[in-house]
Design a protein that fits this description.
With 414 residues, the protein is an alpha/beta fold. Among the domains are: 1-35; 192-337, 3-Layer(aba) Sandwich (Trna Endonuclease, Chain: A, domain 1), CATH 3.40.1350. 70% of the residues lie in helices and 10% in strands. The chain is built from eight helices and eight strands, in the order E-E-H-H-H-H-E-E-E-H-E-E-E-H-H-H. The chain has helices at 18-135, 137-142, 144-189, 192-210, 256-268, 301-323, 328-336, 339-395; strands spanning 6-8, 15-17, 215-218, 228-233, 239-248, 272-277, 287-290, 293-296. Strands 3-4-5-6-8-7 form a six-stranded mixed sheet, sandwiched between helices. Strands 1-2 form a two-stranded antiparallel ribbon.
Length: 414
């Protein structure tokens, strides 16, 4: 029985068990099959890594192309809006100049008619006076001395009365001019506190509308800190960082604002800090970074918020990817194909549209204010001219000549 289980090698004549020969051959076949499958799997993994690397490069190129396109569109839109505003201002100025010229022409015509009527009246008066003097020549000679005395006393009394009336009118004019100056100063200055709160509320409303998933909290009045704190969160609820916002609506730039905001940033432990100012420093045009703090004009606040928020989201995503580097390519592909990425692109476009609407609203508001102020000034000048004309009609043009501000160009000619 044992001889049947042994095999003799035809070459060397050695004997070995049949089971060992079969198991050795099976082991060689299994090892060969395993090596082949392992080689195929390694080749497939290398091909997949090359494909993922190519996809990553393509995504980076697409992102760069989108950023370039957005910058070009922003520049074109800004130039178009500037040109439209300049053209509209020029057209309005031309209409105002034409209207002013028509007013001056009508006033000049009325002045000429008034002069002619006054000349006719003087002629009639002179003729009547001459006739009366001829009829009463004898009586005038007898009463000349007494009439001269009475006339002198009457002139003195009239001059004294007119002097007192003129002093009263001058006092009224000075009071009106002071009131006009006060109203103009109040209208030009406005309430700085109310303007600052308006800018802060507008910024808070824009941030809440653009980023509903973020936590936008307002710093209460009387508490130390900036105006708004924006806690950035992803669509999945992941906390990605904080942005601290400070708004300043003033006529001049104050360097101390930056140091104060940096101190608030350290206290709030925020990753980024942004200072929105109506008058940024001369080195900042639109938006830029100054001593570690982002500074921008109100028109660029939403665009800057979208860019900074995107940076925090990417940083948080990068940290998550570093924790599982093997899934980085899959996460990147999922992010590009996600709704969040599409919403970011739509948000940037919505910011541009909102900026255009904001410019239109501001233009309409300023035009309304200018029209109201112009109407008030026209009324004040009109009433002042009427008061002065009434006094001049009593005292006479020789005693009270026209002031330079109330003279027409044609009135100065002889």
């Amino acid at each position: 029985m044992n001889d049947l289980l042994n095999i003799t090698c035809p070459k060397c004549g050695a004997e070995f068990p049949l089971t060992e020969a079969v198991s050795h051959r099976l082991r060689e076949q299994i090892q060969t099959e395993f090596d082949r499958k392992l080689k195929d799997q390694n080749a497939a993994l290398e091909a997949r890594e090359r494909k993922l690397h190519q996809q990553k490069q393509q995504l980076e190129q697409q992102a760069q192309s989108i950023q370039t396109l957005l910058e070009e569109r922003l520049k074109t839109e800004r130039e178009r809006l500037s040109a439209a505003a300049a053209a509209q201002a020029q057209e309005k100025l031309a209409v105002q100049m034409a209207d002013l010229q028509q007013r001056l022409a009508r006033q000049h015509q009325q002045l000429e008619e008034a002069r002619q009527a006054q000349l006719d009246l003087l002629k009639q008066k002179a003729a009547a006076e001459e006739a009366r003097e001829n009829l009463k020549l004898e009586l005038a000679k007898q009463l000349d001395a007494e009439r001269a005395a009475i006339a002198q006393r009457a002139r003195q009394q009239a001059l004294e009365a007119e002097r007192l009336k003129l002093a009263d009118k001058e006092q009224i004019i000075q009071g009106l001019q002071k009131q006009i100056a006060d109203l103009q100063q109040r209208a030009s200055q406005g309430s700085m506190q109310l303007q600052g709160e308006t800018l802060e509320l507008s910024l808070e409303s824009d941030l809440r509308q653009l980023f509903p998933s973020d936590e936008i909290s307002e710093v209460k009045k009387g508490e130390r800190g900036a105006d708004i704190k924006q806690q950035v969160r992803s669509n999945t609820g992941l906390v990605c960082g904080a942005i601290l916002w400070e708004s300043k609506r003033a006529k001049n730039w104050q360097p101390a604002w930056v140091e104060k905001l940096k101190e608030d940033q350290r206290n709030a432990k925020a990753e980024l800090a942004v200072l929105v100012a109506t008058r940024p420093p001369e080195t900042i045009h639109g938006m830029g970074q100054l001593d570690g703090v982002w500074v921008c004009e109100p028109a660029f606040a939403c665009a800057l918020a979208a860019a900074l928020r995107q940076g925090l989201l990417h940083a948080a995503l990068q940290r998550a990817q570093d924790s599982g580097r093997a899934d980085k390519a899959t996460l990147l592909y999922d992010y590009v194909c996600s709704v969040e990425f599409r919403q970011h692109i739509e948000g940037v476009v919505e910011v541009f549209l909102a900026l255009r609407q904001q410019l239109a609203d501001e233009r309409r508001a300023f035009e309304k204010q200018w029209a109201e102020r112009e109407s008030q000034l026209e009324k004040a000048i009109k009433h002042t001219a009427k008061v002065y004309g009434s006094i001049q009609g009593i005292a006479g043009r020789a005693a009270l000549p026209d002031p330079r501000s109330l003279q027409l160009p044609a009135a100065s000619a002889p």
